[in-house]
Amino acid sequence: MVKIDAKIPEGPIAQKWENYKANQKLVNPANKRKLDIIVVGTGLAGASAAASFGEMGFNVKVFTIQDSPRRAHSIAAQGGINAAKNYPNDGDSIYRLFYDTVKGGDYRAREANVHRLAEVSNSIIDQCVAQGVPFAREYGGLLDNRSFGGAQVSRTFYAKGQTGQQLLLGAYQALMRQVNAGSVKLHTRNEMVEIVMVDGKARGIISRNLVTGKLERHFGHAVVLATGGYGNTFFLSTNAMGSNGSAAWKAYKKGAMFANPCFAQIHPTCIPVHGEFQSKLTLMSESLRNDGRIWVPKKKEDAEAIRAGKLKPTEIAEEDRDYYLERRYPAFGNLVPRDVASRAAKERCDAGFGVGTTGLAVYLDFKSSIERLGRDAIEARYGNLFQMYEKIVDDNPYETPMMIYPAIHYTMGGIWVDYELQTTVPGLFSAGEANFSDHGANRLGASALMQGLADGYFVLPYTVQNYLADDIATPRMTTEEKEFEEAEKAAKSHFEKLMDIKGNRSVDSIHKELGLVMWDFVGMARNKEGLEQAIEKIQAIKKEFWSNVRIPGSEEDMNVELEKAARLADFIEIGELMARDALHREESCGGHFREEYQTEEGEALRQDDKFAYTGCWLFKGEDQEPELHKEELKFEVVKLVQRNYK
Amino acid sequence: MSSTLGSSIGKKLLMSLSGLFLIMFLLVHLTVNSFLLIPDGGEFFNAGAHFMATTPAIRVIEPLLAIGFLIHILYGIKLTLENRKARGSARYASGKKTTGVTWASQNMLVLGITIGAFLVLHIAHFWVKMKLTGDPLLEHTTITIGGVETEVENAYALVNHTFSYLWIVIVYVVAAVGLAIHLSHGFWSAFQTIGFSNQIWRKRLTVLGNIFAFVIGFGFSIIPVLQYLFYQG
Amino acid sequence: MENSINIKLKVWRQAGPKAKGRFETYELSNISTDSSFLEMLDILNEQLINKGEEPVAFDHDCREGICGMCSLYINGRPHGPDDDVTTCQLHMRKFKDGQTITIEPWRSAGFPVIKDLIVDRTAFDQIIAAGGYVSVNTGGIPDANAIPIPKPDADEAMDAASCIGCGACVAACKNGSAMLFVSAKVSQMALLPQGRVEGARRAKNMVAKMDELGFGNCTNTGACEVECPKGISLANIARLNREFLKAKAQD
């Protein structure tokens, strides 16, 4: 029987991590060489963990589906990374970053983890600067900060609009340094397809070489999954085309619990959908909300005229504009957290005030900032974002307001992990977006980069070592063992089964169908009836997929359609679990908004007496209902109140 | 040292330094040649040629010049061959439509071969005759250098005679134009390779290179043309 | 405004690294000019799958112009006929109705074809592994503000660091040279005090690896700079030359 034990260390919150480190077990250098660690994924969390393990002297094998570790989707994070440095002297502290993150997550995160995150945040900035990450600086030569949603201090460090890129390149370079040193072996275009269990512990993986199609066996004393989120369940999202939830799903099927799957973040500032052929959505950094003002027309007839192309936004007088975020949330204004901003946009569009040809867009206007600061200042801050917008939409945002609409961006839910980032499967760890920790029901801007790097640089190196200290007597296994053979056989038959369907529909066409169901029923606003419908619809899609998908080519070759199909098979099941989780959570919190539970003003209404827990789902077999376990959340420091950004 | 010169940047350093050396040579050469345009029956030019022939420094520089040419030619060929290999055997079916890339920069070897071919002819016309075989036209003449009557070779007569043939004049003009195009890229490129360039200097060097190329090209064209048109007989 | 065009595609198809490739011609109609180039290829692939044929394999991932995964040599230019964009940000409004579009993989000995339009760019990783980093381990680091860095230096380092490693520079270069890529990393590090410490070692090792992997010699044509989707400047190559020659002179 799997038992939930978060293994939170003793002591007051600010001492827990210190206590843990003081008491953890260590592995001596001679033994480290004999221990193998598998890291799947090379985003911020995976690359930083793998590099750190390598530096420590472990023998590391790292896997990425892309041609290079540098392609991981962390690279696309634009805005910045938070840290409690308090360089601007505006009253920030570790406690405040901790508090803001718990509050921003609508009180559904584990306090101890979040506090640790805030504690190590400062070391991340130090580490990255030492690696040569070119953060933005002031004329005095010191680091510059900007403010982000959900915070009243400026604690976000940034490198133009490419912060994720620069941080990832820093971690990637540290990783390549270890590859050069021989402590890390890099496997590119190689996808984990199965976890190998030996005596109840994760002891390796089966991977598919995406160039040859061959299955490979790899042994590790411990396995770390840093494979990102499952936002692509929605088909259209800001995730990269290759981002997928399959590694996490394989872990789930091996007994790792999946926590809070319904907590998905809808990002308020994305370029609106423009047609059915659309393949993905493009994010416009949240940092734009620092200087952009969000509005829709005050009068419905103006909105209608704009939709019909008869009126231009610049022709609408100042008094006829509804700056609805500033109106509803005077204290935070355009910088309210993402979930709040997204829902407010949906509310306006649903009420008929939306713009763009579809009516599913609102304006993000830089006019007053350009007047106040000058075009050059705006260009220096957001030049690359404006250029990107213009390339996609063919509109000049310096002259006419940008159009934006919410889109799926990040998944707070993920594999359940304890304080050590270990899953309910011994020896299987999870880091970054792939795990559920730290962000509760809603992630604040510039916190994903912080969490990924915190996990990889400053948490896993301690906790995995603590786990491996008991494993120094375990010799390297040969991959000829029967467990490896069976796992490979299972993976092989899975792929053969997919190839054998030989149906009539492309993978994408079924994925789009799934995406629409997800967006309509498991999206920004959910209700009981809709979620029940969604589960039925998803089950029908699953049937359709397994009987009617068509995958050309062969499994023993590079086969992009087969890769996509295997991922979609998992997305369908993830989608169902998301709906199930959303259905059971009868409250509104953060990214999870149940229409039945809202205040009179339409704000999210939590049910702390019933749902102040992490919902952890345990796999019970194919086509069986999963079993819900609860990790009760104890708030010793933070007081639970309704979030108020007014 | 061998590892430096064996590296890609090292090989290019040799191209750059030999190129800059040849650029210096061109400047001196053009200066002396410009004496051909002084309508004094070649006296000043002969004085200059005599100076060049008798100054010990030039004797040292002459073999250096030959080495400079050799290095520039041999490494130019070597680099081009290596680059063709690095490019791979497949070519783009849709061609190259990158804008803003000068024709010269893409065709330095072709230009170099043109200049090289001309060089053979040029050496045969003048250097061989003046240094090795001699020529009746080079019979000594007497000029005044610094108030002293000096007997010198009549290099002017040889030049003047050579440029009485139209085909030679045309060949020289074509070569001068080729050289100018070669320099329009080579000049700034030489500085870029030794690292003497940045965002600002790149523009300056390109402008300077174009001016230099024009002066060299125009200078070396106009001399044979004027010699042919106005200095015969 | 929404418009649609009909186009003819000439696409390079190659079954595997050693297979002989050829161009295939496809016709597509009613392509919205608002769709991206890769969405157009998605439509082509959807049609191929529905006909039971193998779809065209091409590299792509983020579709936001930052991961560097997409490539494609389109109508004579890496990343196609628009400036300062990657293929994923190229839109069909850049093409005319009835136009023939030729799509080829990157062509360079350093980037062998894997399948169809996908090439192997791991050489870039090997070059980074040879020295494209600051040799610091995790932890034990001084405060981030301990060393002030002049803003112009930090900004210039950031410009160099914008390189996405897509390989368009190599694809555009008639010499198959990787100098722009290498110089961007060497420059970024050379401009920062943290990177200066091992500047000489880095320049030597990265150039040696680049040469070893068979990339060509830079002849300063500048095609790489024109085609770089991130506008990495040729000035970086001058700095690399400087760094390398200085490092060698110190030996």
From TrEMBL, chain A:
TM stretches of this protein: none
A GO term for molecular function: flavin adenine dinucleotide binding
Keyword S-adenosyl-L-methionine on entry: no
Primary site of residence: membrane
GO biological process, alphabetically ordered: anaerobic respiration
Pfam (any one): FAD_binding_2
GO CC terms: plasma membrane
EC code(s) of this entry: 1.3.5.1
PANTHER family: SUCCINATE DEHYDROGENASE 2 FLAVOPROTEIN SUBUNIT (PTHR11632), SUCCINATE DEHYDROGENASE FLAVOPROTEIN SUBUNIT (PTHR11632:SF53)
Protein name as it appears in the record: succinate dehydrogenase
Organism: Marinilabilia salmonicolor
Organism taxonomic ancestry: Bacteria, Pseudomonadati, Bacteroidota, Bacteroidia, Marinilabiliales
TrEMBL record, chain B:
GO cellular component: a single term: membrane
Alphabetically ordered keywords of this record: Membrane, Transmembrane, Transmembrane helix
InterPro entries found in the cross-reference section: Cytochrome_b-558, SQR/QFR_C/D
Tagged with keyword Transmembrane: yes
Transmembrane segments: 12-37, 57-77, 108-128, 165-184, 205-230
Coiled coil: none
Name listed for the protein in its UniProt record: Succinate dehydrogenase / fumarate reductase cytochrome b subunit
Organism: Marinilabilia salmonicolor
From TrEMBL, chain C:
SUPFAM superfamilies, per the entry: 2Fe-2S ferredoxin-like, alpha-helical ferredoxin
Residue ranges annotated for the 4Fe-4S ferredoxin-type domain, each copy included: 154-184
Biological process terms in GO annotation: aerobic respiration; respiratory electron transport chain
Annotated InterPro entries: 2Fe-2S_ferredoxin-like_sf, 2Fe2S_fd_BS, 4Fe4S_Fe-S-bd, Beta-grasp_dom_sf, Helical_ferredxn, SDH/FRD_Iron-Sulfur, Succ_DH/fum_Rdtase_N
Similarity-based family: Belongs to the succinate dehydrogenase/fumarate reductase iron-sulfur protein family.
PANTHER family in the record: SUCCINATE DEHYDROGENASE, SUCCINATE DEHYDROGENASE IRON-SULFUR PROTEIN
Name of this chain's protein: Succinate dehydrogenase / fumarate reductase iron-sulfur subunit
Lineage per the UniProt record: Bacteria, Pseudomonadati, Bacteroidota, Bacteroidia, Marinilabiliales
